[in-house]
Every structure is written in C-alpha cells, then in structure tokens.
C-alpha cells in the first residue's frame, strides 16, 4: 500500500484534504453483526471537532459523518464501511500568503520537495483535518472492542507546556475543553492558553491513553509487536515527536528489580511494562504516552525561503490551534483502538484453538 | 504478513530461536548490482555479538553469516538474499529452572498465554539473539545507502542508568565497549557495570541514532510516514519502551517559536524536527532516540507464578546482558537503515519524475 | 488488508453495495503531476454503465464520478484520490422474493454462510455494480500509462456463447454495443441476445485484453509475477472462471518448438507467451483472455433452499444482464491497467539504475 | 513486499537459486501446536524431486529439508518456521553455452532486461528448483488443514500433449511416474515421452487439483476472493499459462440454466462453480485446473540474440524436464494448500462469531 492504509485484518484507508470537497475513509475488516449507525461515531467526532472552545481553531465544521456502505438494517455486514465528511467552512483565500513560501516547522517544504508542488490551502493533505476520519474509524473499533470484549480505551491531557495534571480522575476528563483529568489545573490551563493566544505563539502537550480490559496474547512478534504497531500508529498522528509505553524513557535510569513487574496469583504487582511484554499484551492495562509539538502556523514572523529559494519572512494568518495537543485526545484513542482491533482479529486467526492452561492474570492490575 | 516481515519494497523476514539450530532471514528487494559479500556484513555483526567484553553476556557465538542466495559473481542480482547464522554455543540445561515458571518482566508469560506453550530455552523466539539477523539485513541497506546516496547511519550510547554522555565525538564511539561518544565517561561506565554485575542487577539505557546525507522527500503520508515507520522499527527492538524524533518529549514544553526550525537559503537554522516534517524527510539529519529497559533475567529472586498458577520465586541462572542497551547500538542503526532503504525505493517508484524546482536545503544543517 | 484492496504502490481500495447510498474507492499511489479531471474517467464509465442498449440491464445509472481529493489545480498531487458515485436507480422491492432464499449459482448462499446474513438488495456487495469503481480507478492508470509510457490497454469480446469473433478490427470494437471487433458478427449477436432475453436465460462470454507499448522488465518474481497478479486481478472480476496468458490452455498440446517465441535483432517472431516470460514482461504485447460465466439471476425457475434449509424454487425478477460479458470489456481493461501501473512503480523503485546493455526487443512484435 | 512472499496470515517467503548453496523459505503464521517434523514434508518433496524416473531431469537432488526454527518438542510454536534444502548436484559448466545468449521462451531475456544481468547457472532464480520450497511449505498447510478440518488436497495429470486421462481413479495417481489417474493411459504416456526425449523436444500438460472437505465461507471479496488468490498462486508456478475454476472456459458456451448449480436440502446437484461463488467457498469441492507450457530449454536449435544483440542460435545442453507438467502435481497441490490455509486463518479472524443459521450444504456434493 502507498501510505494511506493502516492495519492488516482491520484496515483503514483514508483520503482527503483540508480544503477539498470532502474527507473520507474505508474501514475494511469489521466483523459482521455489530450494531452501527452514524450517531455512534458522532460523539468522538464532536470531541475532536474544531471550534468547540476559544482554545482551538475557530474553523466551524459540523463534522457529520455519513456511512455509505457496509451497514444493513442497522448492523455491519462484514463488507467495507465507506465513511465521508463534507468540508464546509473553507476560507482558501487565507492561504494566499503562504502559497509560495514555506512555514518553518511545517510540511510545506517537504511536500514541495517530494511531490514537486502542493495544495497549499489549509495545508492540503498534511492538515490535521484528516484525523477526523481516524476518529470515525476508531469509533467503530472502540465500539466493537467494548461490546465484544469489554475493552475500554480512554485518553487524557497529561501535560500542556509547563502545566502537568497531578491527579487522574477519569470523571473530570470530559468536563473541561482540555481533556484534563485534574480539575485543579483547569483554571491554570485557561489562563495559560489565553495568554498564549494573545502572544500569537503555540505550545506542546503530552497525551496519555489507557486501554483497560485487555486480553493477554495480542501482538505478533517480531516486527508486528503490539507496542511497535502502537508506536507506528501514534507517531503517525500529526505533530507527534515521541511515543512511550509504560515506564517509557524513565526506564533508562531504572534497575531490573525496579522495572520488572512481579506476578502473583492475584495479578501483577506493578505495571512498568505498560501492558506489553515481548510485543504481546499481558492483560494489564495498556499505557501509552505521546508528545505533540507546538503548531508551526504562527502569527509571529519567522525566517524561511520561498519557492524560488529567496529568503523571506512568513506570518500565518488563517485559523489554527495554538495547541494541537488539546484536540489530540480522541485521535490518540482512535489510533490505539484501530491497532488493538487489528490485533484481536489477527490473534484469533492464528491462535483460536490455543489453551494456555493458565487464567489471565492481567485483569487484576 | 504474520509479524516477522518488515518493509514493503525492501523487506526483511526473519526466523529463528535462541537455542534452535540456526537463525536467518530473507532480504527481499535489494536492487541489483550492489557489490556484496558476507564479509561486508561481519563488521556490524561483530559489533553486536555477545562475549566481546566482560560487560555483556558470556555466551560465545562467532555469528558468522552465510549468504545463501541473491548474489552472483560478487553482486546482488535483485533476487532475495537468504542469510543464515548457525547457533553454536547453546546451554539449554541452564533453563530448566524457568521452564515452568515465568520471569517477571519477561515475555515468558505472554508467549505462554498467546501460544499455549513456549520454547523456554534461552527465551526461544523472544530472545534478542534474533536481532543478529536484523544487523545483517541492515548491513545490506547501510551499504547501498552509503554507496548510492552517501547516506550514513550511526548510533551511540547516550545514557546508561545515571551516566549521560556529555560530548558527541564520533571518533570515540568505536573505541570502547559501550559505543559511548564521550571518552571521559568510559571509566565511570566500567565501574558502574562492574558493580551492577556483582549485585546481580541490570540497568536501562538510551541509544541515539543519526542518519546524515539524507535526501528530502522520503516517507509516505499519512500512515507510512518516515517517522511513524521509524517508530515502528525501533519499538520492535527487544526492550525498547520509548522512541523520540528530534526534540522528542522536550517538545511538550516548547513554544512554537522555539520548536520550528527556521530556514534560510543556506539551510535550516536548527533541527528540532529531527529531520522529518509532515512524515517526510527534510534533508536534515535524521535524529532518533530510544529507551531500553533493564534486562528482566536477573540473579536476584523475584515473585512470580508457575504454569499451574502457584506463587513461586524465580532466579535466572544462564548468561545474560546486565544492560541490553550496550549491544543495541548496531541493532538500532540497522532498523533505521532498513526503514530508510525501504522509503528510498518507495519514493523512487512514485516520484521519479518530480522536479521540485528548489534545491535541497537539508544538507546545510 | 482485508480483501478490498489491490496493488502495492498503486493501490485501489473500494467500498459500496448495489443499493446503498453510494459506491466509491480510494486510489493511492498515483504519481503527482498527472492532469486529471472527472471527465477523463467518464468515457470508460459510460462504456460500462448499464442501460446503454437493450442487451444489458435496464437499470438507469448516470454513473457520474466525483473526485473528492488528490487533485489540485487540475493535477494529481501524489496524495490519495477519493472517488465516489451516488447510486440513484434502486428498486429494492424487486428483491423481496429472494431475501430469504438463495439463487443457485449466486453469492447469496456463500455470503450468508460467511457473514451470517446479507444485504439482499441487488446482491449487495456481491453485485457487479462495484466494478464501476474499478473502471474509474483503472481510468487513472490507463491515462498515466498512455501519457508517460505510451502503453495502450484495449479489450474486446472474443466470443459470446457459440458466436466467435473471427476478425480483430480494433476500429470496430467501439461501434457496436458488444465490443465485438468483427463487424460481420454483430447482427448475429443481436438476434442471439434477443432470443435469449425472450427465453429468460443467460450466456457466457470470452473477453480478450491486449496491452501494447509495454516496456520489458515489469513483474516481480516469484509470487508477484506480472502474469500471476494479472490472473489475480482478472479472476477477481465477477463471473470470471478462467484466465489465460498468450497461448493459454492451447499450450497443453504444444511442443516446445511451437511454443517458444524465437528472437531476432528485429524482435520476437511470435507471441505465444502473451508478453510475459518468467513472470516479467518481455516488451511484447501483453495478451490476456478471460471466461465469464452466464448470469445466475434468471427468470427461469431453479431449485434451491431457503434460509430455513427447506427446498424451494427461485425466480429472479429485478433487472439483470443476460450476458455479463458484454459490459466486462472496460472492467477487464481497468484491471490490467491497475496491475501494469502498480508494476511500473514497483519496478522503478527497485531497478531505476539498471542498464541492461540491450535494446528492448519487444516492441517489434 | 517485493515479490517473494505469498499469503497474509499464513505467509511463505522464499529464496534461492538453482545453483546457489541452498534454497529455503520462511513459513510465517502457522498456528501453534501442530505436530511437525521434517519427515512430514519429505513425502511431497520426494513426489516433486528430480530424477525419480527417466521422464524427468536426471539432476540428482536428495531434496532433504531441514527445519531450522518454529518447532519445539515436536510441535509448532506459532513462530516462523525456517526451512532449507542444500543444493548438491550442480553442474554449472553445462551453462557456459547460454551465459551470453537468451533461450527463446525462457526468462533469460526478461531477467537480463529487468536486472541488467543474471545468474545464468541453471536459470538462477527463474529455475523451477525454487518450487521445492513451495512443496515443503505447502506440506505444512496440507497437514494442518487435514488434521484440523479434514480438508484434503490432491492433484493429478489431466492431459499431457494429446493424451487425456479419461478416468479419475485417485488410487492410480501415485502408482505411476506421471500422476495419471487413468491406468489405461500410462503405457501411452511412457512411449510418448520416450519418443519426445529422443526428438529433443518438450510438451505441455494440464494438471487438476481438488480440495475436498472444504468449509463454506473462505475467501474475502472483492479483491482477495478465494478464486482470485488461487489464480494468483497457481499462475505463479513456472510455465503456467492458464488457470480455471470449475467449468472454466467451458462456461463461455454455457447458458445460465446449465451453469448454475441447483441446491437441495441434501446439497448441490452439480459443481460447475468449482466450489467458489462470489469469491467465497461454498463447501463443495474446490476444483482448479492449470495449463503448463512445454519447457523452453531444448536440444533442438532455436533462433535468438546474444547480449550484444547479434542473431545467434541456441541449443540447451544441461539436464531438463521434457514435460515440466509431470512434476507439477505436488507443486499445484502445495499452492492450493497455502491459499486455503491463509483464508482459513483470515476467515477465523474476522468471522469467528458468525452463526449463519444454516447447515453447510457443500459436503453433500
């Protein structure tokens, strides 16, 4: 495949640009019999969509997804599910200032070098607008995993610039526009973002995702390990510069006795591994964390070159997120869901007869 | 594919267990005409092989690779290259103590739960012994990239437990058993490792890899981004728990004006991006960093369960690396080489006629 | 992938049912810079579409394709091309008679056994309606191959029931509703089809496809041979039961001296091979032939069972093609184009530096 | 993948040339727990190996396969199975006559044009020697399918030149060197082949393969149909120029009432479909047929060109099969087994929860 497909048995292929007529995707491999309607996907789309608070881009998109195939009488048929969202609020004229110059830190330059030219309107294919389809596709995976296996995939903002969530209260996550699980930090986030917007700058963020209710056994070593495919999927999200599982980079300074998760008949005692050992799920919660860089589309001028190679300054007008991390929580959840779903199907194919002789220990931790 | 293949046009499929008769791989898609002999691969294999200093496992393997196909009259033919290394120094009896109990932090448990049973000798397929084939395969990619494009891929130990390299002197990297680029830290590393070995414990590490001479344009958005596939490849290495590109997790606290790499006609001014923008190489050096956890096979007893689910203690005899990160440098280089090579071929296929009209700026930084 | 994608570097993923809201596909991997508009694809869509003569189904579909992405300022950008065709003329009530019984010779039964239930309206996903998207996707490949390489892909009806074309006059192919290259047979075809329609029966056909202007060197042995992937692509067309290259089944009775195509400095003397030797194109014309079975949806009653397993009779009302082979010519061309296109890109990726030292002989024959 | 891998969940990747040190393959995705030893694969390897009668090449190869991984204590572990066969009887000097000229009808020319040069010894990678590994890999699939599902895959010689088998007596197939199911034709085959060998010519053949005990539901429409992937796999065998399922090319002259297989509660009444409807297995016997061209390596001189493009004559000394079809029966069985195996695993992954509510009708016919 040429780069726009992810997954082997449960696969998602996407298309669409920021300012084209529509974005869409094909979800292939969803098992038959899952109850599914567009409404089931809308909740996560609404969590991701722009313009829901003053802290994200003011582009207004309803992001209403249409299911074009693969569902009959309210149930998936096992055939590919075509999804589409029409683009409605495009202001292409905003982009005339950057059509022949490259924003530093943006894909403008690399698209030009790879393809010879680029759709400069809203970043074209490099726009995070494309992630709406990931959220829709991931919504199907989430629903199947929850209903069939009790697997639950949830994310939250762990850090935004200098502000770290210090409590993990899942009930708080959906109660503020930041997906912050620590209610005590919300006011601080509000004022930080207001100041940043005024300044015309942007900021990075860290998002954590957890999957609970995981069965043991998912993941195909050597190359298609569960953690390796999660890293692939999460790093494929716009602006992500780092991915961790479990202890992540902390393990550099850990000793073996600290890092290894001891086991008892009642379950694992800790979860440094983040739910994956040897590339295979252990049944513990899957714990992933990602770093998102600050947006490169800024009102503050920066040095760059134009298509002729001359030195110029660039200022981005248009409408942009000062922190792309804010809207990334549902996207990261979706990518985890897609990978886990694919591995559920792959694992069943090869291992359906296996009896390990041992009860799954993972759910105890 | 079922998990043991990586790459689309340049692909590597591997097989083999720690204590089976041999390990091997098939490298498919190497262009014809590359001069290649087993000796070309031996240097990197020797860098990775066990027993070269007192700080790694004392297993003795010559790790001599045999080329079984794909080379004729000293040149690659374009057909698959079969590679094999016979295992010679196996002491399976060392493993009788763990055949029916699971080392905490090890793949013992997850292999059991996935497959119903496992080859417990030396970790079987989950052993890092398999990475010898990655090094051999990566050696082919490295040679092609260097000779055809001048791309050079090199790694080093950036941190081991609390000890950080503070200088990057490439000339030092091969002069000590740690791949440490800071000569001033070698004595400290020696004594730290000696103490650790005495204690019976293990430690984590961080490895950095850089690719210089990169052309702009490699990588296929959306899902097959260069950074996403690097994350996949690097996270697929045993014990890796985190992957970063460029600024990595530092970007969480960066502002847009700090992170964006400004451009001039003479090149980029900084390299926070690590050489990838929008999933496509910018021509700047590719900079990746990985975290490796401490080995879970320890002489210090740990709590676990046996195959009957009873609580037991486990102690690992056998021969193990107290820091798997030490030997990981050539492995990480190999994985980067495989991914870059695959993307060179893929890019040429789709974009060979492209003229971007702009000179590559990347090589200036 | 889960079955709805074909191709590795130039890939097509399709979705859609006969009576759903729309059918569509994503074409991934088209090189940037190709001039493309919906109108470029319409000619082949019109050649395939239903209702253009009394000899095909009377369903009326405009089959107007919309390009949703991947084209900017009239040129492909190198990003995925989303294509969609809305379904308009659906008469789902026609299918109530077969909703709980299985047409013999149809996919009704196998879809039920595979998925547990099925979208019975117009055959759902098993309907040849899906092939409209193949024609659209193939149109992109055809245009690129023709403009960039001078490769031309054309098909014709070689036989319909007992009536064989005895002349190959390419100028005649588009002048009759059968794609018959032998003008002397058209009247016979007309009356045969009129009688068949009156009878309520259906008939098989043979379609030939030729690609001229082929370069030598396309195809990846061992498994991804050009002929093997052509066989895959052509057998994936609804109703196809056989595929031949060159001499095809005639070779069973040929001696080596008859079959081998001798070569001279002016080219090959014959083309028994059909343009492929060892899985790689020889530069001669690619010659493929397929057999299409008679439609199984008949007004003549047949024995079958219903969903309860009881014996019943089935009669298909609805609107069906009495010879699916008639509309199959553009579909077969499209599939050949998709495979050749994919192999052009794959070949370039791996072999762009190759100089064989010998001029291509193929074009002389 | 670059051409030497087939299958998605059960995949086979092969390497090796006719006159290199060894041929081999990696079988990835075999479920754990299958009892397996090299001896299990030897029977089919012996059926394929050269030199077993005077009617095949007199090259002597023991074709003893070694299992290098993936089996522990006599059972598959779920990890990749590495297989290798050392080449022993190579006479490279026989090939000096063709090193700089191209045998007409052979891959010599196309390999030269694709790769720039070629391993001319025994045809290098284009030699049918490579098919030994397919037989070994297929043997694993056959064993799993037979033991786990009762699926049995068997082939026979249906025609050799003008001589057709008129009876299908499975008990006869293994009792003569031709795999001919009609004992009355064996003497005729013997004398025909003796005359052909004396003449220095070669002849084509037709091989049929049947799979019995098939479950309904295997195959993934649209592109990964069971019949399409069978066509791919069978056309990938050296010398194959045509593939048919069920009625095959006979369907061109069939009416719908003849071709459709009517159904009763006791099963299908006929099997024109060859066991596949809509790309999905019906549970009836799978019936495939292939045409193999006559060998192009002949002692009779033929016109060709050399690497300089000059006209020359070519005569092939060396040792060759006068009818490659004779040894093709186990190869064709192996390819069918690999495809069916892959689809069993894929089907289980996506559809394991499906209850169609209807007993499988296929086994009754």
From TrEMBL, chains A, B, C, D:
<comment type="subunit">
    <text>Homotetramer.</text>
</comment>
<protein>
    <recommendedName>
        <fullName>Chorismate synthase</fullName>
        <ecNumber>4.2.3.5</ecNumber>
    </recommendedName>
</protein>
<keyword id="KW-0456">Lyase</keyword>
<dbReference type="GO" id="GO:0010181">
    <property type="term" value="F:FMN binding"/>
</dbReference>
<comment type="function">
    <text>This reaction introduces a second double bond into the aromatic ring system.</text>
</comment>
<comment type="similarity">
    <text>Belongs to the chorismate synthase family.</text>
</comment>
<dbReference type="InterPro" id="IPR000453">
    <property type="entry name" value="Chorismate_synth"/>
</dbReference>
<comment type="pathway">
    <text>Metabolic intermediate biosynthesis; chorismate biosynthesis; chorismate from D-erythrose 4-phosphate and phosphoenolpyruvate: step 7/7.</text>
</comment>
<keyword id="KW-0521">NADP</keyword>
<dbReference type="GO" id="GO:0008652">
    <property type="term" value="P:amino acid biosynthetic process"/>
</dbReference>
<dbReference type="InterPro" id="IPR020541">
    <property type="entry name" value="Chorismate_synthase_CS"/>
</dbReference>
<dbReference type="GO" id="GO:0009073">
    <property type="term" value="P:aromatic amino acid family biosynthetic process"/>
</dbReference>
<feature type="binding site">
    <location>
        <position position="278"/>
    </location>
    <ligand>
        <name>FMN</name>
    </ligand>
</feature>
<keyword id="KW-0028">Amino-acid biosynthesis</keyword>
<keyword id="KW-0274">FAD</keyword>
<feature type="binding site">
    <location>
        <position position="48"/>
    </location>
    <ligand>
        <name>NADP(+)</name>
    </ligand>
</feature>
<feature type="binding site">
    <location>
        <position position="319"/>
    </location>
    <ligand>
        <name>FMN</name>
    </ligand>
</feature>
<keyword id="KW-0057">Aromatic amino acid biosynthesis</keyword>
<dbReference type="GO" id="GO:0009423">
    <property type="term" value="P:chorismate biosynthetic process"/>
</dbReference>
<feature type="binding site">
    <location>
        <begin position="125"/>
        <end position="127"/>
    </location>
    <ligand>
        <name>FMN</name>
    </ligand>
</feature>
<keyword id="KW-0288">FMN</keyword>
<dbReference type="Pfam" id="PF01264">
    <property type="entry name" value="Chorismate_synt"/>
</dbReference>
<dbReference type="GO" id="GO:0004107">
    <property type="term" value="F:chorismate synthase activity"/>
</dbReference>
<dbReference type="InterPro" id="IPR035904">
    <property type="entry name" value="Chorismate_synth_AroC_sf"/>
</dbReference>
<keyword id="KW-0285">Flavoprotein</keyword>
<dbReference type="GO" id="GO:0005829">
    <property type="term" value="C:cytosol"/>
</dbReference>
<feature type="binding site">
    <location>
        <begin position="293"/>
        <end position="297"/>
    </location>
    <ligand>
        <name>FMN</name>
    </ligand>
</feature>
<feature type="binding site">
    <location>
        <position position="54"/>
    </location>
    <ligand>
        <name>NADP(+)</name>
    </ligand>
</feature>
């Amino acid at each position: 495949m040429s780069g726009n497909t992810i997954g082997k048995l449960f696969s998602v292929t996407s298309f669409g640009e920021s300012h084209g007529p529509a974005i869409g995707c094909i979800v292939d491999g969803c098992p038959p019999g899952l109850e599914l309607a567009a409404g089931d996907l809308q909740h996560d789309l609404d969590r991701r969509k722009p313009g829901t608070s003053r802290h994200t881009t003011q582009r207004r998109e309803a992001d209403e997804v249409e299911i074009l195939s693969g569902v009959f009488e309210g149930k998936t048929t096992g055939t590919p599910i075509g999804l589409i969202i029409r683009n409605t609020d495009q202001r292409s004229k905003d982009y005339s200032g950057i059509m022949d110059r490259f924003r530093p830190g943006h894909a403008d330059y690399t698209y030009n070098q790879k393809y010879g030219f680029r759709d400069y309107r809203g970043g074209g294919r490099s726009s995070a607008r494309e992630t709406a389809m990931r959220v829709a596709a991931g919504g199907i995976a989430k629903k199947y995993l929850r209903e069939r296996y009790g697997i639950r995939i949830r994310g939250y903002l762990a850090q935004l610039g200098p502000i770290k969530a210090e409590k993990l209260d899942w009930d708080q996550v959906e109660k503020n526009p930041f997906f912050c699980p620590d209610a005590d930090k919300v006011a601080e986030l509000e004022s930080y973002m207001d100041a940043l917007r005024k300044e015309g700058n942007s900021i990075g963020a860290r998002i954590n995702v957890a999957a609970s209710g995981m069965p043991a056994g998912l993941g195909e070593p050597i190359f298609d390990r569960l953690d390796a495919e999660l890293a692939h999927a999460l790093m494929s999200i716009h602006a992500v510069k780092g991915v961790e599982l479990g202890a992540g980079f902390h393990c550099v300074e850990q000793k073996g006795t600290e890092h290894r998760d001891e086991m008892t008949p009642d379950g694992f005692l800790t979860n440094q591994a983040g739910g994956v050992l040897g590339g295979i799920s252990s049944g513990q919660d899957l714990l992933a964390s990602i770093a998102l860089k600050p947006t490169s589309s800024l009102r503050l001028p920066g040095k760059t070159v134009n298509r002729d190679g001359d030195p110029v300054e660039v200022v981005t007008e248009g409408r942009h997120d000062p922190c792309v991390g804010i809207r990334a929580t549902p996207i990261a959840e979706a990518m985890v869901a897609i990978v886990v779903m694919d591995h559920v199907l792959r694992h069943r194919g090869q291992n359906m007869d296996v009896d390990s002789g041992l009860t799954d220990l993972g759910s105890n931790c």
